[in-house]
Amino acid sequence: MIYKSSLLPLLFTATHLLLAADPHPSGAEPDLVHLGALTLKPGAFLELIGMSRSSTTADSVSTKFGRIPLGDTPWETIGSARHSRLMLKSELPAGDFHFTTYLESDFMNFTTGQSPWRWRQYWGQASYGKWELLGGQAWSLLRPNRIGTDSDKNVMSTDVIDPAYEVGLLGSRVRQIRIARPVGDYKIAVAWEADGNLLTKVVRDKKRTHYELGAFGGRFGRKGATASAVISLTPKLRFVNQQYWSKRAAYQALGVMPIGPNGLSTIEGAEFQMRRNTELYTYGGMVYANRMDTTANRIVRQWSAGVNQKFAVPANWHGGMMFSLQYSHMDRAVWNGKEGAMDYLMYRFRYTLN
Q1: Rounded to the nearest 5 degrees, what angle is found at the Cα of 166, between the Cα atoms of 325 and 110?
Q2: 3-50 pLDDT per residue, tens
Q3: What is the domain-level CATH number for residue 339?
Q4: Residue 1 lies in a domain
Q5: Is residue 216 part of a domain?
Q6: How far apart are CA 344 and CA 213, in angstroms?
Q7: How does DSSP classify residue 292?
């Protein structure tokens, strides 16, 4: 077994969980700290991920979808606690304004000789009436939501175990300046992102549906348009999808394609709440790009299925435990005719501080 991990995620996250699990005063809301008008909400989860895959790669448990081996290599099994996470959100009302900051980090940067700490998100937001102004590193507007446009919650990143998510999704965490405002039944957001793209997104939320339409333009003639939806077909069954068409911007689909070629992507999925604490899911995704050179990816595909099982814990722990199991098959083909495929099984234990 190859074990790629660090004790630091365990130490940082376990300490945070132990402190947060102390009994709260009677009537106090759990996990909130009040300093005058300032409210702090810490959060964390401890996550242990194991992975057995049919190819030997240089990847951690976060898969580089566009680089799976072309040809046969031996099976390998790895494990990591580096996807454990710490979060801190603050809220401060000030007259007609409301200020929010959000910090989120994990330990996925760990390699020998480097700090394991990685900032995922760090941003501040000022709200005035219906207007919202956000600045910092947050999810690109290309990443779909389940509700609204918030970057710290309700992001539709699927329910898979893999920290790299699923082939077919768009967008990454990127530095940006964003303005958003609800207009009737819709919400409109516009962002200037650090990779030089100007994006806009319109969302509409109803009781059982969330729809999005987005577009962007950028340097070197980059253009793209996207549409996505989260639809509750029944109270227990959800359908999720995202479609993408681009000119010189296929790379926005999780970087599985190089910068430059035109391309398209799609992801479709179903999430079924079989029981109160048991969820089944399946997703299928594909990214296709026009030819750039003979060694560039032509197509990358993935299909995944899995289960998330939650377990009850004592109320004074202020948290919850979950065990997950996932199977994925993926393949890619390059323009010179070579092809590669990889199957993998992932298993996860997570303790979340609520």
Answers
A1: 80
A2: 444 444 444 444 454 444 443 433 444 568 889 999 999 999 999 999
A3: 2.40.160.10
A4: no
A5: yes
A6: 33
A7: S
Q: Which residue has the tokens 């020998």?
A: 112
Kindly state the tokens that stand for 18.
């132990």
- Half-sphere exposure (CA, 13 Å, Cβ side) for 240? 24
Residue 183 lies in a domain: yes
Beta-bridge partner residues of 85: 45
In a domain, 2, yes or no: no
Number of domain units in the chain: 1
What does the pLDDT look like over 255-268, one tens digit per residue? 999 999 999 999 99
Return the amino acid letter for 109. N
Q: Which domain holds residue 240?
A: 7-353
Cα 208 → chain centroid? 22
43: Cβ–Cβ under 8 A, 6 or more apart, which residues?
Answer: 31, 86, 87, 88, 89, 353
Spatial separation of the C-alpha atoms in residues 54 and 166, rounded to whole Å: 18
> Is the pLDDT score of 214 beyond 50?
yes
3-state secondary structure 44-104: EEEEEEEEEECCCCCCCCCCCHHHCCCCCCCCEEEEECCCCEEEEEEEEEECCEEEEEEEE
Residue pair 109/98 in contact (Cβ under 8 Å)? The answer is no
